[in-house]
Design a protein that fits this description.
By secondary structure, the protein is α+β, with helices and mostly antiparallel strands. The protein is built from 13 helices and 23 strands. The strands form six sheets. Strands 3, 7, 8, 9, 10, 11, 12, 13 and 16 form a nine-stranded mixed β-sheet that branches. β17 and β18 form a beta hairpin. α2 crosses α9. The longest helix is centred in the middle third of the chain and has 21 residues. The protein is globular, with a radius of gyration of 24 Å. The structure holds one RNA strand of 77 nucleotides.
Length: about 450
Amino acid sequence: MRLSQFYLPVLKETPSEAQIVSHQLMLRAGMIRQEGAGIYAWLPLGFRVLKKIEQIVREEQDRAGAVELLMPTIQQADLWRESNRYDAYGKEMLRIEDRGGREMLFGPTNEEMITEIFRAGVRSYKDLPKILYHIQWKFRDEIRPRFGVMRGREFLMKDSYSFDVNKDEGAKSYNRMFVAYLRTFARMGLKAIPMRADSGPIGGDSHEFIVLAETGESEVYCDRRLVDMPTPPADTDFSGDLTPTISPFLEPYAATEEKHDAAEFEQSVTEADRVSARGIEVGHIFFFGTKYSEPMKAVVANPDGKETPVEMGSYGIGVSRLLGAIIEAHHDDDGCKWPMTVAPYHVGLINMRAGDERTDAACETLLKALEAAGVEVLYDDTPARAGEKFARMDLIGLPLQVIVGPRGLDDNVVEIKSRADGERREAPLGEAAAMIAAEVHAALAVK
RNA sequence: CGGGGCGUAGCGCAGUCUGGUAGCGCAUCUGGUUUGGGACCAGAGGGUCGCAAGUUCGAAUCUUGCCGCCCCGACCA
């Protein structure tokens, strides 16, 4: 992509309404634009990252055996009356009326609808287990939206729902999502720690996945050993018993404020390993049994031929929020520092003298070769000054910058700069594309 | 919903107390000089001062109402 054809409205100054660094950088790097309190338009650069994150979430859901579908954003009030949540949900639910005066709502979550979809198609325990998920926009009329996409009112969420014949089977589904979540966040360069969490009005077992960050909204407490716990590998067998895989994560102490037990914390964790910090909740998993299946009559015939309500769980990932969390974890004073797996483009190609025959030709050749090798390139072909180009490229934070200018071309080399550590090195012009492509693919291969 | 603050050019702000017909920096456009880390000179364009009503000869400025946004608290991916 040529920058001259792209839409990248960067800001030199920090908009005053942005309080935390991720919000500031997303506005400055032209990733989002606020259209109302807690409502954002996704500009091209931000949209690309959103799609990358969404795709990683999707791949790990699929790997864990979940099946994707798509439910509508608008739902009917009657569906929510079946679970008695239409009145219980309160003002956080955005209620709408259609032209016929029917009560509708913009979905804040989808337990009711998925239960309705499930019960319409499943009759027997032999069809279980099932995990269904979708990635869809939600609207929750938050009392106080803030911090940009970290607490928007409209937000993109991946929500999965598991259906099992009994509680033991339900626990297996819960574990599958548990492992899928560990892998999902790790692939984005995040250390997300599962913590015992308050399951709220839903009840049942619950874990929140927390990224430690000073700007996090929750107070959390955990054992330091959890911070560097290795991620379960890509070849994990999701059809097998996952208890040994997840038990190392369950044994050390970890809890959010609501579930924190100071006495237990001090007793079970050595003083040196006690971490009390702030964190960003990027995922939340629940097992809630028959809360919806019972009132909504989502039942299957069990092996005895008796109809029993299915045991359900729900599993959420805040996809749009993850952009904020990743920036909080990966940035410096100059801008974002995207991990390769979620970067809007892998490489920023900087033409130091756009309009000069020699640099233009070298850039065009590199661009073609890189794109042919499957590398996503943002090519700065604008006539802007060098300082401006570097600052802009640092701000948007592409992992690799390739600098092509007369100075290097005199020696037949280009410069490659890594955004992560600022390291610069030279590469022969003829070999640069292959070297960069290999580097990009190596970084992406880590799954 | 309670408490606090803000709304003036795309962005950041001054002007409001003390009413006199709107300004600064950045950005944008034109010409020129520059050109490897946010350049310089000269010129130009861009504003129903959030909206409405009121007071006044005259309102960005005073009064009232409304709208929007931000921050602190209770709720949440």
